[in-house]
């Protein structure tokens, strides 16, 4: 297995892990914990009873960015199945866009809730933050794999005299 294939396999694995963590983070209700309950992007649970959260601007932006990030990731992993020269650059660009959307969503949510008393970030938020470096590393893997392919093609035309 060559360097290009190893980088592509590593990028695919990191992208798949980022996808699972993002979907897991977006759909669960344990972004923050406070005495008597917990809250996510969509619902707030107090004393075992969950209800929908009324529309708030920062929660709407966070939820929209998380859903867009998950759809970007699905699109990036589907591009891998197609053949073509620009496939590596396109896939890495989508992974970097995915990372940017995650960064916007998670930073906004963290800033909004960081100064509240008796509020602690929980595992749903942490899994979102964990997906961020995975997506960026996946983008770098595909970018490096594309560069290895381009340099190999460029060097193959030169005669080698030793």
TrEMBL record:
| Membrane-spanning parts | 12-32, 58-80, 92-109, 121-145
- What's the chief localization of this chain? membrane
Instruction: Extract the Pfam families matched here.
Output: PMP22_Claudin (PF00822)
Give the source's domain of life in one word.
Answer: Eukaryota
Does Transmembrane helix count among this protein's keywords?
yes
Indicate where this protein resides in the cell: Membrane
Please tell me whether the keyword Transmembrane helix is annotated for this protein: yes
This protein's UniProt keywords:
Membrane, Transmembrane, Transmembrane helix
Q: Which GO terms describe its cellular component?
A: plasma membrane
Q: How does it sit in the membrane?
A: Multi-pass membrane protein
Against InterPro entries, the record matches this protein to:
PMP-22/EMP/MP20-like, PMP22/EMP/MP20/Claudin
Give the family, as the similarity comment puts it. Answer: Belongs to the PMP-22/EMP/MP20 family.
Provide the protein name: Claudin domain-containing protein 2
Please name the source species: Mustela putorius furo
């Amino acid at each position: 297995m060559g360097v290009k294939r190893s980088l592509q396999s590593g990028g695919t694995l990191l992208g798949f892990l980022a996808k699972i963590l993002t979907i897991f983070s977006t759909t669960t209700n344990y972004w923050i914990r406070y005495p008597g309950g917990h809250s996510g992007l969509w619902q707030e649970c107090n004393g075992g009873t969950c209800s929908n959260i009324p529309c708030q601007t920062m929660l709407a932006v966070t939820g929209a960015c998380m859903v867009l990030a998950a759809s970007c990731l699905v699109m990036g992993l589907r591009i891998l199945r197609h053949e073509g020269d620009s496939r590596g650059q396109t896939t890495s660009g989508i992974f970097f866009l995915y990372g940017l959307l995650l960064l916007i969503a998670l930073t906004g949510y963290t800033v909004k809730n960081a100064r509240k008393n008796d509020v602690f970030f929980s595992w749903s938020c942490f899994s979102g933050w964990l997906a961020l470096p995975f997506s960026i590393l996946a983008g770098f893997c595909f970018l490096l794999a594309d560069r290895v392919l381009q340099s190999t093609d460029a060097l193959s035309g030169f005669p080698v005299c030793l």
